[in-house]
Amino acid sequence: MACPHPHPHPHPHPQQCLPIRPAFAAGDRNGDVTRSFPIVPFVKAEAPRLLPVPDWAELTPSNLRHTLEAQVSSIVGDGPQLQTAAAVYFRTVHTWFPIISETCYNTRLSKVRVQTASAPSDLSLLTLCIALVCKEPVKGGLPLSTRSMYASFKSYIALLEAMGTNSLEILQSRLLLTVFEIGHAMYPSAYISTAANIRAAVSLGINATCEDLSKVFQDPQRVEEAHQTWRGIVITDRYISLENGQLSYTQSGQSIATDFEDWAKVEVDDFTRLTHASHLLDRVLVHIHGTQSHPLFESVEAVQILKSLTSFLVTFQSDDSDPPHPLSDSALALCRSAMLETLEVGSHINIPDNEYCINTSLNILKSLVHEIARGAEISPSVKMMNLSVFLPHYIYKAAMVYLGDARVSGCVDPEPSIRPLKDLLGYLGMRWVAAKRYLAKLETLQENM
């Protein structure tokens, strides 16, 4: 079969047509004939090659559905392999980011297998993204095969979007890709993806209360799943805004924060705590990056925020005297990030006769950093696959406080103090590349001191 070529002139290097392979350009089906785009491998920059250009006439829903199904079969597998991949996801990422109903997902997979029908495009895409977000770095970086998978899945989302397709499963796929981008420091992709997620969610109407969601989804399980997905979008938006030093798109003054009435209950689940922590973080981002007002008003606002953060942090304390482990909880991580950001600004606020507030901020800041480092020394480690993408920032920030003190004093060696924090980032880096990047920044700063 002749290769379909994106350019009217022959390419100087002949290319071979191969069946669909994972992480490469997808083929399509017309009747019983399967056609494939040329496989374009990763090559050095000095040997550029033409990439395949999609043919709009071939971009039909049935062709894309077949392509995605073939990718699932090739990358994830069939039957027991699908179940194994799903089980890994629900034992790991799902424990700290429960945006997908395990029951609903498994039910949909079972229906496809029982009816021996083609899987819907959105379900196949979600299955692929579930597999991707569980991929680990190799030797501190992402293998080319993983990067290729990521690029392919992003392109499938773009194709579905171009066809006018949007669904809860596609939105969840987008969100898992964003989590992957955050965890592996893929910027500006993560920042751009977050904004697109918000728009896609608004288009579906899931940025609403549970009562209003019932009008969109008839099944109560789907209502809850949509609600959790919107929470996940809000959380990732605020964490990315923290890392970029900007205001979030989902500010708390909008309907996004309507579920915080749940916090009044005695017991809440971990994801509700994480959502509340993101709400507090958003208040901090508005305080730091919002419209500047009178310094005195800003200091009063900062005190109110610190009171809220302190009250929330107390809920993480155990009965014994040991501090919580720095890797144990995403909500704790976000809350500590918010606290560190607020205290850092408070220690530099320019108000006459305000030495007491500045010194208080510095003392609380040092105490918090010491607690984080102490927790890293005495607590047991957490399983690597269960580590959250929201953990690295505050560990890095705490280490930066130590380095700042050492730079000011000029005589204190910060290495003994920050070694436990660097070890934590090194351990986190075996799961998420972003932690490795933070560690490299710290080591570069130390070398230049």
UniProtKB/TrEMBL annotation:
GO terms for molecular function: DNA binding; DNA-binding transcription factor activity; zinc ion binding. It holds the Pfam family Fungal_trans. Residues 88-319 form the Xylanolytic transcriptional activator regulatory domain. GO terms for biological process: DNA-templated transcription. The keyword Mitochondrion does not apply. The keyword Nuclease does not apply. Keywords: Nucleus. PANTHER family: TRANSCRIPTION FACTOR PDR1, ZN(2)-C6 FUNGAL-TYPE DOMAIN-CONTAINING PROTEIN. This is Xylanolytic transcriptional activator regulatory domain-containing protein.
